[in-house]
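Loading example: each entry is read as two labelled lines plus one structure line.
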Amino acid sequence: MLFVSQLLNTTVYDNQQVHVGYITDIIVKPSSNHPPVVGLEVQHKGTKNFIKYQDIESLGEKRSTLNISHKNLKTFTPHKGDLYLHSDLLERQIVDTKGARVVRVNDIQLGKIGSELCLMSLAVGSNAIFRRLGLNIINNLLNINERFIEWDAINIVDAERKPTASLQLKMIQDDLSHLHPADIANIIERLNTQQRHHIIKTLSEYSEDITADVLREIEEPAKIRHIFDSISLEKAVHILEEMEPDDAATILDTLPEDKVTELLKRMEKKDSADLEELLSYEEGTAAAHMNPNVLSVLPDHTVKQAIQHIQTVSDEFDSIYYVYVTTKTGLLKGVLSVRTLLVSKLTTKIKTLMQPNMITVSPDSSEKEVILKMTRYNLLALCVTDEKNHLLGTIAVDDVLRLLVPSA
Amino acid sequence: MKKNLASLGITLSIIGPGIISGIVGNDVGAIATFSLVGAEFGLSLLWIVLPVTILLFLIQEMTARLGIVTGKGFSDLIREQFGLSISFWAMLSLFCANLMVTIAQFTGILIAFELLAVPKAIASTLLCVLLLFILLRGSYKKVEHILLLFASVYLSYIIAGIMISPDWSAVGKAVITPAFSWSADYVAILIAIIGTTIAPWMQFYQQATIVDKGLKKENLTIIRYDVAFGSIAAGIVAFFIILTAAFTLFANQLQFTDLQQAAQALIPAAGELAPFLFATGLLATAIMAILVIPLSTAYAITESFGWERGVDKTFREAPVFYLILGSFIALGLLIGFIPSVPYLAFIYLAQIINGMLLPITLILLLILVNKPSLMGEHKNTLAHNLVAGSFIIVTVLLSLYLVLAPILS
């Protein structure tokens, strides 16, 4: 096993022991889980030459030898998609999707697979740092073991040689998309501007759904703005339409006026109307967090009819805790849980099952009051009603949890 | 949700890094150094304010440009472009310089409490607790808005400077008359002036803040204004501090051994409240610096080595980050408990060390900002390089002279 840091700046001799230069980079072909080395970049008196892997006799920590004469060195041009380990990967910040975090490549481990020398794994822990600085003593004293991550769990997002579009798509498909949106959001928040731009762009083209979920989890307004700068208006509109109105409204709140106008213009009438209503409410009030789309049934519906209705509209709701009972004009009559619906006879009328005494808040209630009521009455969702008891919207518990622990 | 001042909020969220660096840059060290300048040399060093302000602008502009064009922090770039060894030395020098500067702030707090006749030990411990609380609860960014408010404290220097009714024609002449001497005292104070105005932490802090705000190339012009305002603000405050010290301490041939004297000397000219204002100024600048510099150092170092960071992480998750933060605050607090430390001398030494370590980060900055692969069309012009390069050479020569002269003589 050899580390890239051990090879860099070591001398290369040809088969006659003539000094050829010193290694400045190692080039691999990122074709598989363990990219094989295809060549070396060697510098001699200011000029850089590329040496094919096949022309190398041996690679060692102190010196390397070629199996041909320096007179027979044919120039080898690396392919466009090839990866330069020193300038593209070593020392860089990359995404470790398996660990759902951003790490720095402190060293790269090479090893033999068959006759090929391949990239085995990346060292991202402190062990490599101390070892490279000649301070291995610290590793022994503090018992610091190395942390390795696999190549196929890695995403390089920027480099002087930009990864090809297909490589980026592959990494989104294979790795990033399997993570929980909250973890993806965490990673995105830790990347630098360019990396974030690349990932968001590719992610939004791959799946608007996932992008919407990730966007909901991003905390800092500045980062939300960058993200919107990285996607086209069309995509942005689709993504916002995917979300529940209150989440979309929270995001729109962080964007500049003109952008918001542009986005609202392009949305479907119903969605933009909902959003404009939400945006008009005072920040920090109950109304600001509510979702105006309510899952409701009529009092005279039977359980069977209610379930059928829910099945037709379920797509519009991220989560369903309660079913609200309203009149045709929107007057709140009662509530029942999904559990009640599941265990009751299909012919029972809703009005006999529902709980008529409702805990509600008015649109201008404070966030504090909302949290208080939800906690006191053990509610997963709270109704927002006007003075006449019309149901304006509901506030779900996960919106409120974020208020309690903003740094999570 | 009504957009309460939302647009203004967004503009304010862009402006800031340059102004803050300039303002926080006039910390305890600056007050001490410039007071020393005025007290020992009168108006004869006043000429240096203009060139050093221009240099501050140039250097901060380069880091701002670097941050905007690459979208990456300074320590991130150093690690990526120069590798682990150089990163290590850069981070080590940053740590040392910043630690000295931070401890200097704590001594400033002690001096302020003395002037305000507050019992030192209890007060500074309480203050540390408060500061730790703010650091760990509030976010790096929220702190900025508080800092901008604190900035008004600096007006007191300008007012004091005017109240002592200086001889403006002498002042005007001094501003444009350069003077130089090879005496060790003179060279030392030059380095201290450089180190206090253009401290290494400023480059890292400013670039990190810019990247955090996700500023783009379109914002380059507005950021240049921001940096300009910050530099000018720094220059003006420096000017008035030298002025005030020159006409109160130097004029009366008063020996300047501790900062309290600078405060007392203001009384005949600026009234009985002068020491109180002075102490408040000292306290405010010290607090500001303590809120900015340790965090900035912790972020820079952990970023460079790829360690976990952020006040939203627990100690277990980000041990090195918290250790760095903790060591800064702890060592700062500790200085208050060591008896008979010559505070002024220590603060002065911290500025000199800053000045001597500055070339390290400046050379790295200059190389980075000239790389076409990083900066594209925004790389340095020849003019930039000539000015910055000469400045680095001058600073290195002065530092070498200071270190070698006593040995060689």
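Residues 67 and 207 of chain B are 5 Å apart (CA to CA).
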